[in-house]
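[job 4471] stage=fold_predict status=RUNNING
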Amino acid sequence: MDLSNKVAIVTGSGRGLGLAYAQELARHGAAVVVNDVDRDSADAAVAEITAAGGRATAVVAPVGPAATAQALVDTAVESFGRLDVMVTNAGILRDKVLWKMTDADFDAVIDVHLRGTFTCVREAVLRFREQGEGGRIICVGSPAGQRGNFGQTNYSAAKAGIVGMVRTWAMELQRAGITVNAVCPVAATAMTETIPFLAPHVEAMRRGEPLPPVLRREVGMGTPEDAAGVVSFLASDAASGITGQAISIGGDRLALWSHPQLTTTAFQDGGWSAEDIAAAWERTFGDAVESVGEEFPEEVLPR
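[job 4471] inference complete, writing structure tokens
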């Protein structure tokens, strides 16, 4: 998995999953542009990567504005001569139930996750097309965007939107040799600590205790480092034929999310009135109605 000829940008990489992605890419030889809003975190990440023999530099700026995206790409080109990989990982949480969520709560999450992904990918693609050698776009989604999650209207919407953009970009960029994929990780981080039943496991991991097998396998939750290998794989030549996919990774589990598909279909000449739908619903669609939210094994839920 030799990435020594690659240059990557990883947004939100001062800590957590983003730092694990940046370190993993550097470990395989890629030069990395680290990004964070916190100068100390960004500088520490660069120091860790360079101390391990890697190449890295930092851009301290909030993801969302087009100016940040431009600065990230300009820094990659000025520092390392080119750009090959864009990993859009930056994110924040403002969790509240719908009736308590403010406009500011909603807008902040959408701006960083959704707009930040859009602006950074757009800028990277402009550079990829100029270079004429293809490229790799790796966008970080979430199971919350696939299934929904209580208290995360803003986050779930943003993550679902990211996967929607990935599918569209995969079609638009295929002829240019640019692959676009989403990674939906589950890892014990400060962000997953906000989920009440996971908080004790995150704290236990900090104390050096291993996560129980049921979490690593059934929930697919592990350390940030557990979720990093798929990023190097998607950045490599080995993944040149993979695009438009949403890949789940965490703990001991690697999985592929399905694209939305019609599951049950009925036809009626002349169309469907409200009364017709009511009469046919239970008979035709009742058993096909799908659940919402993640489904977890009983043994990991609070009692």
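[job 4471] summary: The CA atoms of residues 106 and 279 lie 39 Å apart.
[job 4471] exit 0
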